[in-house]
Specification:
The chain is about 45% helix and about 15% strand. Strands 1-2-3-5-7-10 form a six-stranded mixed beta sheet, sandwiched between helices. It has about 260 residues and is of the alpha/beta class. Helix 9 runs antiparallel to helix 10.
Length: about 260
Protein backbone atom coordinates (compact mmCIF):
# COMPACT_ATOMS: atom_id res chain seq x y z
CA UNK A 1 0.00 0.00 0.00
CA UNK A 2 1.49 3.40 -0.94
CA UNK A 3 2.00 6.04 1.74
CA UNK A 4 -1.30 7.84 2.17
CA UNK A 5 0.43 11.05 3.24
CA UNK A 6 3.43 12.16 1.18
CA UNK A 7 5.93 14.65 2.56
CA UNK A 8 8.85 16.41 0.91
CA UNK A 9 11.00 19.49 1.42
CA UNK A 10 12.67 21.30 -1.47
CA UNK A 11 14.14 24.81 -1.50
CA UNK A 12 12.74 25.52 1.99
CA UNK A 13 9.21 24.60 0.86
CA UNK A 14 7.50 21.59 2.43
CA UNK A 15 4.73 19.83 0.54
CA UNK A 16 2.16 17.66 2.30
CA UNK A 17 0.13 15.60 -0.17
CA UNK A 18 -2.94 13.59 0.76
CA UNK A 19 -2.33 10.47 -1.30
CA UNK A 20 -5.51 8.43 -1.34
CA UNK A 21 -7.02 9.45 -4.68
CA UNK A 22 -9.09 6.29 -5.05
CA UNK A 23 -11.04 7.45 -1.96
CA UNK A 24 -11.02 11.15 -2.96
CA UNK A 25 -8.24 11.71 -0.40
CA UNK A 26 -10.66 11.18 2.48
CA UNK A 27 -8.75 11.23 5.75
CA UNK A 28 -8.54 8.19 8.03
CA UNK A 29 -7.46 8.43 11.68
CA UNK A 30 -4.01 7.12 10.70
CA UNK A 31 -3.71 9.80 8.01
CA UNK A 32 -4.78 12.46 10.50
CA UNK A 33 -1.99 11.37 12.82
CA UNK A 34 0.53 11.57 9.98
CA UNK A 35 -0.62 15.07 9.01
CA UNK A 36 -0.27 16.21 12.61
CA UNK A 37 3.27 14.77 12.80
CA UNK A 38 4.39 16.39 9.54
CA UNK A 39 2.93 19.77 10.48
CA UNK A 40 4.64 19.70 13.87
CA UNK A 41 7.92 18.81 12.15
CA UNK A 42 7.54 21.81 9.83
CA UNK A 43 6.99 24.13 12.79
CA UNK A 44 10.23 22.91 14.40
CA UNK A 45 12.39 22.83 11.25
CA UNK A 46 14.17 26.11 10.46
CA UNK A 47 14.84 24.67 7.01
CA UNK A 48 11.11 24.98 6.20
CA UNK A 49 9.82 28.47 5.49
CA UNK A 50 6.51 27.72 3.77
CA UNK A 51 4.18 24.70 3.52
CA UNK A 52 1.95 23.62 0.64
CA UNK A 53 -0.99 21.28 1.33
CA UNK A 54 -2.54 19.52 -1.66
CA UNK A 55 -4.19 16.29 -2.79
CA UNK A 56 -3.11 13.56 -5.19
CA UNK A 57 -4.93 13.13 -8.47
CA UNK A 58 -7.18 15.52 -10.34
CA UNK A 59 -10.55 14.78 -8.75
CA UNK A 60 -10.16 15.69 -5.10
CA UNK A 61 -8.15 17.86 -2.74
CA UNK A 62 -9.77 16.21 0.26
CA UNK A 63 -13.28 14.85 0.77
CA UNK A 64 -12.98 15.24 4.54
CA UNK A 65 -12.94 12.43 7.05
CA UNK A 66 -13.51 8.92 5.76
CA UNK A 67 -17.08 8.32 6.92
CA UNK A 68 -16.52 4.56 6.94
CA UNK A 69 -13.77 5.00 9.53
CA UNK A 70 -15.77 7.09 12.00
CA UNK A 71 -17.20 4.01 13.73
CA UNK A 72 -13.67 3.35 15.03
CA UNK A 73 -14.50 5.89 17.73
CA UNK A 74 -16.39 3.95 20.40
CA UNK A 75 -18.03 7.03 21.93
CA UNK A 76 -19.02 10.48 20.74
CA UNK A 77 -16.69 11.90 23.41
CA UNK A 78 -13.70 10.05 21.95
CA UNK A 79 -14.71 11.32 18.51
CA UNK A 80 -14.77 14.86 19.88
CA UNK A 81 -11.28 14.48 21.38
CA UNK A 82 -9.63 12.81 18.36
CA UNK A 83 -6.35 14.25 17.02
CA UNK A 84 -7.57 16.84 14.53
CA UNK A 85 -5.56 17.62 11.42
CA UNK A 86 -7.23 21.01 10.93
CA UNK A 87 -6.27 22.05 14.47
CA UNK A 88 -2.68 21.04 13.68
CA UNK A 89 -2.59 23.07 10.48
CA UNK A 90 -3.93 26.13 12.31
CA UNK A 91 -1.16 25.73 14.90
CA UNK A 92 1.52 25.60 12.18
CA UNK A 93 4.04 28.40 12.74
CA UNK A 94 5.00 28.71 9.08
CA UNK A 95 2.85 30.23 6.30
CA UNK A 96 0.67 27.62 4.61
CA UNK A 97 -0.81 27.47 1.11
CA UNK A 98 -3.68 25.17 0.12
CA UNK A 99 -3.43 24.07 -3.52
CA UNK A 100 -7.01 22.88 -4.02
CA UNK A 101 -7.01 20.48 -6.96
CA UNK A 102 -10.59 19.20 -6.83
CA UNK A 103 -13.28 18.50 -4.23
CA UNK A 104 -12.75 20.34 -0.94
CA UNK A 105 -15.65 18.92 1.02
CA UNK A 106 -16.28 18.86 4.78
CA UNK A 107 -12.98 18.45 6.56
CA UNK A 108 -11.27 19.10 3.23
CA UNK A 109 -12.83 22.56 3.10
CA UNK A 110 -11.80 23.11 6.73
CA UNK A 111 -8.27 21.96 5.82
CA UNK A 112 -8.10 24.53 3.02
CA UNK A 113 -9.49 27.27 5.26
CA UNK A 114 -6.95 26.40 7.97
CA UNK A 115 -4.22 27.43 5.52
CA UNK A 116 -3.31 31.09 5.08
CA UNK A 117 -3.65 31.26 1.28
CA UNK A 118 -5.92 29.22 -0.98
CA UNK A 119 -5.29 28.66 -4.70
CA UNK A 120 -7.83 26.57 -6.62
CA UNK A 121 -7.86 24.73 -9.91
CA UNK A 122 -10.65 25.64 -12.30
CA UNK A 123 -12.25 22.25 -11.58
CA UNK A 124 -12.28 22.65 -7.78
CA UNK A 125 -15.52 22.53 -5.84
CA UNK A 126 -16.21 23.51 -2.23
CA UNK A 127 -18.90 22.21 0.11
CA UNK A 128 -19.93 21.84 3.75
CA UNK A 129 -21.99 18.66 3.20
CA UNK A 130 -22.19 17.39 6.79
CA UNK A 131 -25.85 18.44 7.14
CA UNK A 132 -26.74 15.87 4.47
CA UNK A 133 -25.56 13.15 6.87
CA UNK A 134 -27.11 14.57 10.02
CA UNK A 135 -24.38 16.66 11.61
CA UNK A 136 -22.34 19.83 11.06
CA UNK A 137 -18.67 20.61 10.64
CA UNK A 138 -16.46 20.73 13.72
CA UNK A 139 -13.10 22.00 12.47
CA UNK A 140 -13.87 25.70 12.23
CA UNK A 141 -16.36 25.48 9.37
CA UNK A 142 -18.82 28.18 10.46
CA UNK A 143 -16.20 30.56 11.81
CA UNK A 144 -13.97 30.42 8.76
CA UNK A 145 -16.80 30.56 6.23
CA UNK A 146 -18.46 33.51 7.96
CA UNK A 147 -15.16 35.41 7.97
CA UNK A 148 -14.33 34.46 4.37
CA UNK A 149 -17.59 34.77 2.48
CA UNK A 150 -20.01 36.53 4.85
CA UNK A 151 -22.84 35.23 7.03
CA UNK A 152 -25.45 34.77 4.28
CA UNK A 153 -23.18 32.85 1.92
CA UNK A 154 -21.88 30.80 4.84
CA UNK A 155 -25.44 29.95 5.85
CA UNK A 156 -26.26 28.89 2.31
CA UNK A 157 -23.32 26.50 2.19
CA UNK A 158 -23.74 25.07 5.69
CA UNK A 159 -27.55 24.78 5.65
CA UNK A 160 -27.88 23.25 2.17
CA UNK A 161 -24.63 21.28 2.04
CA UNK A 162 -24.48 21.95 -1.69
CA UNK A 163 -21.19 22.55 -3.51
CA UNK A 164 -20.07 25.77 -5.15
CA UNK A 165 -17.67 25.91 -8.13
CA UNK A 166 -14.24 27.50 -8.08
CA UNK A 167 -15.30 30.71 -9.85
CA UNK A 168 -18.01 31.37 -7.26
CA UNK A 169 -15.53 30.62 -4.48
CA UNK A 170 -13.25 33.25 -6.05
CA UNK A 171 -16.05 35.80 -6.34
CA UNK A 172 -17.01 35.22 -2.71
CA UNK A 173 -13.43 35.53 -1.47
CA UNK A 174 -13.02 31.93 -0.37
CA UNK A 175 -9.95 31.51 -2.61
CA UNK A 176 -7.32 33.96 -3.85
CA UNK A 177 -6.85 32.69 -7.40
CA UNK A 178 -8.28 30.14 -9.82
CA UNK A 179 -5.82 28.65 -12.31
CA UNK A 180 -5.88 25.76 -14.80
CA UNK A 181 -5.40 22.39 -13.17
CA UNK A 182 -2.07 21.88 -14.92
CA UNK A 183 -0.73 25.15 -13.47
CA UNK A 184 -1.93 24.72 -9.89
CA UNK A 185 1.19 23.39 -8.17
CA UNK A 186 3.44 25.62 -10.26
CA UNK A 187 1.52 28.68 -9.09
CA UNK A 188 1.43 27.48 -5.47
CA UNK A 189 5.19 26.90 -5.54
CA UNK A 190 5.78 30.33 -7.06
CA UNK A 191 3.92 31.97 -4.17
CA UNK A 192 5.69 29.72 -1.65
CA UNK A 193 9.06 30.60 -3.17
CA UNK A 194 8.34 34.30 -2.76
CA UNK A 195 7.30 33.81 0.87
CA UNK A 196 10.36 31.63 1.55
CA UNK A 197 12.59 34.43 0.27
CA UNK A 198 11.26 36.85 2.89
CA UNK A 199 12.55 37.21 6.45
CA UNK A 200 11.29 34.04 8.21
CA UNK A 201 10.59 35.62 11.60
CA UNK A 202 8.70 38.42 9.90
CA UNK A 203 6.64 35.90 7.92
CA UNK A 204 5.79 33.96 11.08
CA UNK A 205 4.84 37.11 13.00
CA UNK A 206 2.77 38.27 10.04
CA UNK A 207 0.80 35.05 10.37
CA UNK A 208 0.27 35.68 14.09
CA UNK A 209 -0.75 39.24 13.35
CA UNK A 210 -3.37 38.20 10.81
CA UNK A 211 -4.84 35.71 13.27
CA UNK A 212 -5.02 38.46 15.91
CA UNK A 213 -6.81 40.75 13.45
CA UNK A 214 -9.69 38.27 13.40
CA UNK A 215 -9.80 37.46 17.10
CA UNK A 216 -8.90 40.62 19.03
CA UNK A 217 -10.76 43.91 19.54
CA UNK A 218 -9.43 46.71 17.34
CA UNK A 219 -7.23 48.60 19.80
CA UNK A 220 -5.83 45.41 21.31
CA UNK A 221 -5.04 44.05 17.83
CA UNK A 222 -3.19 47.24 16.90
CA UNK A 223 -1.16 47.14 20.12
CA UNK A 224 -0.32 43.49 19.45
CA UNK A 225 0.73 44.37 15.91
CA UNK A 226 3.03 47.06 17.25
CA UNK A 227 4.59 44.58 19.68
CA UNK A 228 5.16 42.08 16.86
CA UNK A 229 6.68 44.82 14.73
CA UNK A 230 9.07 45.67 17.56
CA UNK A 231 10.12 42.02 17.89
CA UNK A 232 10.84 41.87 14.16
CA UNK A 233 12.67 45.19 14.18
CA UNK A 234 15.08 43.85 16.81
CA UNK A 235 16.14 40.83 14.72
CA UNK A 236 19.37 40.52 12.77
CA UNK A 237 17.29 39.90 9.65
CA UNK A 238 15.67 43.33 10.01
CA UNK A 239 19.13 44.88 10.36
CA UNK A 240 20.16 42.98 7.24
CA UNK A 241 17.11 44.33 5.41
CA UNK A 242 17.98 47.91 6.31
CA UNK A 243 21.62 47.41 5.33
CA UNK A 244 20.65 45.83 2.00
CA UNK A 245 18.32 48.75 1.27
CA UNK A 246 21.11 51.26 1.89
CA UNK A 247 23.59 49.24 -0.17
CA UNK A 248 21.09 48.69 -2.99
CA UNK A 249 21.37 44.88 -2.94
CA UNK A 250 19.10 41.94 -2.23
CA UNK A 251 19.00 40.97 1.47
CA UNK A 252 20.04 37.54 2.72
CA UNK A 253 17.76 36.38 5.53
CA UNK A 254 18.88 33.64 7.93
CA UNK A 255 16.13 33.57 10.58
CA UNK A 256 18.02 35.40 13.30
Amino acid sequence: MPDEILFSVEDQIATITLNRPQKLNAVTPDMAGAIVAHVERCSRDDGVRCVIVTGAGERSFCAGSDIGELDRYDTAWNFRNRPDYCDAIRRLLKPAIAAVNGYAFGGGLETAMSCDIRIASATAQFAAPEIKLGWIGGGGMATFLAHSIGPSNAALMIMTGDAIPAERALAWGLVTEVVPQADLLTRARAIATTIASRAPIAAETAKLNLRAAFTMPLEQAIEYERDLQTICFATADAAEGRAAFKEKRAPTFRRR
